Amino acid sequence: MKKLILFAATLLCGVHLWAQSYTISGTIIDRSTGETLIGATVVDLLSKQGTVTNVNGRYSLTLRADSVEIRFSYVGYEPQFKTFRLNENKEINISLDNATNLQTVNIVADRINSPRSSQMSAIDIPIEHLKAVPVIFGETDIIKAIQLLPGVQSGGEGQAGMYVRGGGPDENLFLLDGVPLYNVNHLGGFFSAFNSDAVKNVTLYKGSFPARFGGRLSSVLDVATNNGNDKEIHGGINVGDIAIKAFLEGPIIKEKTTFSISARRTYFDALIQPFLQFTRAEGIVTSAGYYFYDFNAKVTHKFNDRSRLFLSYYMGDDIVYARVKTSERYTAQYDERNFIRLKYNWGNIVGSARWNYVINPKLFMNVTGSYTRYRNDIGLTLEEEYWNSSGNVYSGQMGMGYNSGIHDYTLRTDFDYAPNPNHSIKFGGSATYHLFSPETMSMSMHESQTGSTYEDDYNIDFDTIVGESKVNATELNLFFEDDWKINDAIKVNAGLAMSGFAVQNTFYPSIQPRFSGRILLTDELSLKAGYAYTTQYLHLLSNSTISLPTDLWVPVTAKIPPMHAHQVAAGLAYNFRYLFDISIEGYYKHMNNLMEYKDGASFFGNSVGWEDKVCLGEGWAYGVEFLLQRTVGKFTGWLGYTWSHADRLFDRHGMELSNGQVFPAKYDRRHDISIVAMYKFNDKWEASASWVYMTGNTATLALQTYEGESHSSNTWYDEYAMTVPLNYIEGRNNFRMPAYHRMDLSVSYHKQKKHGIATWNVSIYNLYNRQNPYLIYASNRFHYTYNGTRYQSALVQLSIFPIIPSISYNFKF
Questions:
Q1: Is 131 exposed, middle or buried (0-12, 13-18, 19+ CB in 10 A)?
Q2: Which of these, 312, 317, 334, 336, lies nearest to 325 by C-alpha position?
Q3: pLDDT tens, position by position, 82-110
């Protein structure tokens, strides 16, 4: 009884002490633009307590009543100090200035990839560094820059797909202002959908991600867009080899309502028109082209210091079109022409409205409503035109279409709660209504006939749709996480994500524990470890024989269960005098219910539903990653190395692949090295270079043959039967392509003009003209000699990108 009374007294004493505490809260912004700063640090230098701003630039720090010396800082900005006696709750909004000398910037606090942070397997890369990485055609590409980080692999030469720690491209959650984006590629993967002019902050989680993120197995790429300058109008235009970009931002009501608009469009379709003139002259191709575009818009309104509204919109599409003459006949009695028309569109629309509100100095709320649409539409039309000398006219069209898509409607609420400096709590939930159109094929026909020799003119119309029926599903999510500082050495982020997916009278529940923590060995060195259990309710069906984006997003069904993954990781993080960070991590991941097409299956054809075209299996991946990163000073960049292994096993009855044996994943690569260096000589000149090396991809090829006989279907010709070699494939991904490596270089020249800054950029992709493999295929040839027929087989490598110089012009005002 005495012990119980003593415990109660101690608890009441603690409550009384915290009752003598007060909270400092506010928002940290860039003084020149008014943009909120994500991840800025707030530290009391006397008590050594601190925090960082959230995705809205908001912070909350509760301290005991006493004298405080608060330091506000952010990478690349001059810090500010506030000294006062804390005897009441205070709202302190801070405006930071860009640092004139980055070498003097001192970084203190729990940045996401610092030794003091409890989060592991996460990387923050400054957006200006991502923009500086040299890329193909001089087109800034955020995903291609992310591919240069350890643990992240590209799909192949020039492609924008992401393969993180042995996972597939559908296992990555791409968030644009907190809203999922399904298709992040343009031009079949050569460019990403993120326009760098619209982006403010990028954070990558490769594993052990916090409980607030869910729905994917492998990674989260969290992209935040610009709110817009609240002081004055700013804008810019960029003209490159194949695309033009422009942005405009500024106040609608100064320091209250802002807007930010950016757009990008390629003009490849205009560039190829001169090459089509010959085909037009010959009457073959009447029109053809390809282009893609992106459009971002955002409006932010500040009701007061406690309440803000954000409206965001994104639209991006790829469009392929062509009209080709297939035949024509002209006689004295009639004329006839036949055409094929192709139109192929795929892309996203994302819209959201977000309201955040400061309930009290310790509690912050976000409410978001969003809509997402992804579509993939292919249309093919056969056209026929006929007219004769009597004035009769006949026209006919027969069209075929293939369509798939997703519509999502989401409502999400989340809270940030900071009861004291030792706890930073996040909790909330969301509900999403999904509408899937997995695959439908449509056929239509139209005929019309008019003329003086016909008794009656007529029109015939026919239209029908066949294929998979639409699937409705509801997804529910709840999460709770606490970033808990146990003592000066130990800090953990522990959380729980709970989700459920209701589809076809089936409900799939999931409870997903998450943990990440660090033990501070010294002020600059920490030991980190993490675990995450994740569930994914969406699958991406990908046909490896087709390079166009004919991939299908499909949900789990009563027949197809969700994917699951367990991932553990551990490593060391070291910060050397706040000048650069070093980390080394090891991981192991096991994945279940992975999905692949059966051998010979494709997305075309509706006699069998997609559920009967796929098989389920498991996979595992493990590896070690090393990263050396410097983000301040004139010389910045990173060095990354990954050793990894990824395997698959599909041995369930009726779903065997590769004879039910273990086979390497398509993008299993043993070694991956990347070096990125950027140097700012002065205000006018800067340069960057990158070098990558990676083990070659795997491929499925027939490396052995055996002799067999080929006969004509007509027995009359059986005497001409001949012996031919037949291919034998030992298993999936049985061939390793040659290693991939290349070097890129970029130089920029800035010049101050009367009304802004002009920048010329010259980039060279694949500097030493390495012929990297894009595709390897078997070439089979027959040689006829006096001694008989000989057969020769050889592997042929296709390379698509030699050395490519590019130039771009940018003007900002």
A1: middle
A2: 336
A3: 999 988 888 899 999 887 544 433 334 45
